[in-house]
Amino acid sequence: MDLQHEWFYSDSRAFAGKVERVGNEHWLVKGLAELGDTYPWYNVWISGGKYRCDCFSSAYGYVRKARICSHIATVMLHRRQLRLSV
Predict the structure, then answer these.
(1) How far, CA to CA in Å, does 27 sit from each of 46, 57, 60, 62, 67?
(2) What is the C-alpha separation between 71 and 79, in angstroms, rounded?
(3) Stated pTM of the model
(4) Residue 30 and residue 17: Cα distance in Å, rounded?
(5) DSSP class of residue 80?
(6) 39 touches 50 (CB < 8 A)
(7) Which comes out higher in pLDDT, residue 68 or 38?
(8) How many helices (H) and strands (E) does the chain have?
């Protein structure tokens, strides 16, 4: 596995089954304390063709925004899994 993208798979596996679609381009992702989350749920949405997460406005959100947050990675994997299972 490409080590550069390993975080994507390792972090996102912990979120398996913890995504709830609440709108056309809006999802809720369950927060996990073991990954440093302080809230029970995080909103992920698409705006202007880009993924956004409300964790960007929390402590150290600038780090997640500069890279990619695990909540967004979870939604991306969730959407891919749904496409592959059809």
Answers:
(1) 9, 17, 21, 21, 20
(2) 12
(3) 0.74
(4) 9
(5) H
(6) no
(7) 38
(8) 3, 4
Give me the phi and psi of 82, to 5 degrees please. -65, -40
Instruction: Pull the structure tokens for residue 76.
Output: 């991306």
Q: What is the mean pLDDT of the chain?
A: 81
DSSP codes, 16-53: TT-EEEEETTEEEEE--GGGT--SSEEEEEEETTEEEE
Say whether pLDDT at 57 is over 70.
yes
CA distance 32 to 23: 22
Q: Which residues contact 47 (CB under 8 A, 6 or more apart)?
A: 25
Q: Is residue 24's pLDDT more than 70?
A: yes
Give the whole-angstrom CA distance, residue 18 versus residue 31.
9
pLDDT of residue 22: 97
